[in-house]
Write a sequence for this structure.
């Protein structure tokens, strides 16, 4: 448990990382480094997005599964690690 | 229900009345009317004279003649037309209108029971029906089908059904939400079981409800799961890959694509590009460093045999403290900021080596003479490891080098048994094997002191007889097995001698090479040419030897005691050497006198260790502050011909006359 915290802190301290969000299975953010409104916005939008991505992957091949999602936009990159019971989201600005 | 005749009289309501019959009826009715009321002019005078005969005439005429009847359509008579008025809900008088509508609907409802209203039927004249036929384009029918996969139909029990409703914001009741998750069979009014998760994108967002107890439990559950740790690992690596993308691409020799969104850099970049010449150089890619290793001296490094991205680094004692707790870190290329594995050892680490047969096993040699074998595959640091602490025959001084070596069994010739060999400061070379959960060893060789006490007199002789005046053992500092013949190995001693030994003969050296007069720090066989090896020592020289030749073929001088020397795994003529103040890359193709690339150490740091990366043109250098720097070799001009021939050619061209005689 302690080294999980440590790893999380390390990730948050890396260059360019704007924030991290952990969302539980119901879409409630349980840990975040951003403000509430942004967090809930990201949580809601990314939840449906990853479900869509996952169903797309599995429709092509039912034995496949989604492991990671990266959305690269002009200003930042959103990294999502989706699982059944949580979502780990990191927002990074890589071109700093 | 009383009927009342309409003005137009009764009409047959038969649905199949034809036009003619209706017209006949109309005619009849009109005739009757005409009788009683004003007649058309033509009939007027006749009718007044012959009232009775008119009737008869009329009937005869009717029976015989054909009457032409002109039918015209009258204009549409609109009896009642009240178009509905539409009022917007946002208009000012909308409320009034809504009120009136409500009142009217009330009235309609109450009509049934109210005495004020009496139901009455009315007969209306139905217009003649017309049949009209039209022709249409053929409607194209297409059959489509879809295949539903099991995933679409199957809803796994853990997959949560989203619970959203407008009332949630008001009730603010998280317990019911969580309860519905925990026991889906309890139907609460808030759950909507029919909603799929995809449709949730149209739902309102749920406000975060403080840190209630249930989310805390959630949090801990998630944090301790394995999947989460794996996700964290992935995430960290991805974040770092974004940061280190150019360096990693250079390491892996991939072309780096320009990021179109990156801010356009000022023109300084262009100028520096024009200035870079084609001379060989080292480019620093990244540094493996973390707080744990700060201040510790890097004593040895080893690549993993199976995963070439994994580097084990052993940290030895710091300069000012002896017998400090040792540390071994396994670093991955993908994460230069934090090691993948951290292993704490009981004493300062002097040497590390990965096994080839079981790639997860890492052998660590320490300065108190003990050897431990750790398994780096499990992330749990508490996995049991095998140690030689309890072994009676363990090394009495620091273990200076460890090697895993595969030996073919002579009978089958196919099995490769791998065993661990070590050389220690007590002058013994041992072969270790695992017994009863611990390590035990057998002595392979004892390094006896070769030089006599009266060194002065014998220094001039080119060959010395192997006389052992004192059978005191001299510390062995390094050894290396022959790349193809695993029976033969070379070992370097404190005295400066290099002995070639065989595993099968434990008493005698096959050959002794004397040139160094200071401790030999490192010996390494050339991986591309079978008979050539390099040795370096604290007398600031590096010697290139050939196996059958007593004297070195070439010697290179450096300015400081050389700690390590390594061959490049790809280019047969390139090797690297590291001494305290700089890293030197030598290229036999270019020059014998000077290194091709010299990289001075950062001020205050001493370089201690060196390794070439096997698949790429990179070297890793460890220093006294616990940092391991990865450099990329650039612009090394190496020839294209086969590596063995290159060395051969060089040797022939460079060897002095004396050697040419011995080569013959």
């Amino acid at each position: 448990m302690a080294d999980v915290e440590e790893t999380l802190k390390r990730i948050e301290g890396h260059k360019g990382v704007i924030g991290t969000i952990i969302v539980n299975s119901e879409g409630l953010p349980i840990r975040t480094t951003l403000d509430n409104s942004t967090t809930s916005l990201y949580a809601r939008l990314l939840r449906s997005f990853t479900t869509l991505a996952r169903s797309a992957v599995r429709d092509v091949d039912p034995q496949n599964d989604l492991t990671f999602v990266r959305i690269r936009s002009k200003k930042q990159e959103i990294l999502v690690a989706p699982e059944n019971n949580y979502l780990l989201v990191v927002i990074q600005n890589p071109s700093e | 229900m009383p009927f009342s005749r309409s003005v137009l009289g009764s009409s047959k309501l038969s649905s199949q009345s034809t036009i003619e019959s209706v017209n006949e009826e109309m005619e009849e009715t009109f005739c009757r009317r005409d009788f009683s009321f004003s007649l058309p002019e033509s009939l007027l005078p006749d009718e007044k004279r012959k009232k009775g005969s008119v009737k008869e005439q009329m009937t005869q005429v009717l029976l015989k003649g054909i009457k032409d009847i002109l039918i015209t359509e009258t204009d549409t008579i609109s009896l009642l037309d009240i178009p509905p008025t539409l009022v917007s809900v946002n208009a000012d008088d909308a409320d009034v209108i809504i009120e009136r509508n409500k009142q009217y609907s009330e009235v309609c409802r109450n009509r049934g029971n109210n005495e004020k209203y009496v139901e009455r039927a009315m007969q209306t004249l139905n217009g003649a029906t017309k049949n009209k036929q039209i022709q249409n384009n053929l409607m194209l029918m297409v059959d489509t089908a879809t295949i539903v996969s099991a995933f679409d139909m199957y809803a796994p029990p853990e997959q949560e059904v989203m619970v959203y409703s407008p009332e949630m914001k008001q009730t603010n009741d998280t317990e019911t939400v969580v309860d519905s998750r925990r026991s889906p069979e309890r139907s609460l009014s808030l759950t909507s079981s029919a909603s799929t998760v995809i449709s949730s994108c149209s739902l309102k967002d749920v406000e975060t409800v403080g840190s209630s107890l249930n989310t805390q439990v959630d949090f801990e559950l998630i944090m301790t799961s394995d999947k989460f740790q794996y996700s964290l690992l992935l995430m960290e690596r991805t974040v770092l890959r974004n940061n280190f993308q150019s360096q990693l691409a250079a390491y892996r020799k991939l072309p780096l694509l320009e990021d179109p969104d990156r801010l356009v850099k000022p023109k300084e970049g262009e100028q520096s590009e024009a200035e870079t010449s084609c001379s060989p150089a080292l480019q620093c890619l990244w540094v493996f460093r973390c707080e744990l290793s700060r201040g510790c001296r890097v004593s040895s490094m080893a690549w993993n045999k199976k995963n070439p991205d994994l580097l084990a680094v052993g940290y030895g004692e710091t300069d000012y403290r002896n017998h400090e707790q040792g540390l071994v870190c396994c670093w991955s290329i993908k994460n230069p900021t934090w090691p993948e594995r951290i292993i704490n050892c009981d004493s300062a680490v002097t040497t590390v080596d990965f096994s080839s047969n079981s790639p997860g096993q890492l052998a660590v040699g320490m300065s108190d003479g003990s050897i431990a074998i750790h398994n780096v595959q499990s992330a749990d640091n508490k996995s049991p490891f095998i140690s030689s602490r309890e072994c009676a025959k363990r090394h009495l001084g620091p273990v200076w080098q460890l090697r895993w070596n595969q030996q073919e069994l002579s009978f089958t010739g196919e099995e490769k048994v791998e065993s661990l060999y070590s050389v220690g400061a007590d002058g013994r070379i041992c072969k270790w094997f695992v017994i009863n959960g611990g390590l035990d060893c057998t002595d392979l060789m004892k390094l006896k002191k070769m030089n006599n006490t009266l060194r002065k007199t014998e220094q001039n002789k080119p060959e010395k007889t192997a006389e052992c005046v004192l059978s005191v053992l001299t510390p062995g500092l390094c050894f290396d097995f022959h790349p193809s013949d695993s029976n033969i190995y070379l070992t370097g001693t404190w005295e400066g001698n290099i002995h070639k030994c065989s595993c099968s003969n434990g008493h005698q050296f096959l050959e002794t090479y004397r040139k160094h007069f200071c401790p030999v720090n490192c010996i390494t066989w050339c991986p591309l040419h079978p008979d050539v090896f390099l040795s370096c020592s604290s007398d600031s020289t590096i010697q290139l030897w050939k196996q059958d030749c007593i004297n070195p073929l070439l010697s290179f001088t450096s300015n400081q005691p050389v700690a390590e020397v390594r061959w490049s795994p790809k280019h047969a003529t390139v090797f690297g050497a590291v001494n305290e103040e700089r890293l030197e890359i030598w290229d036999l193709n270019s020059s014998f006198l000077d290194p091709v690339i010299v990289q001075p150490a950062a001020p205050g740091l001493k370089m201690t260790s060196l390794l070439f990366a096997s698949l790429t043109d990179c070297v890793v250098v460890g220093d006294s502050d616990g940092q391991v720097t990865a450099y990329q070799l650039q612009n090394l001009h190496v020839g294209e011909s086969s590596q063995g021939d290159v060395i051969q050619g060089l040797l022939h061209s460079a060897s002095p006359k004396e050697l040419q005689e011995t080569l013959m």
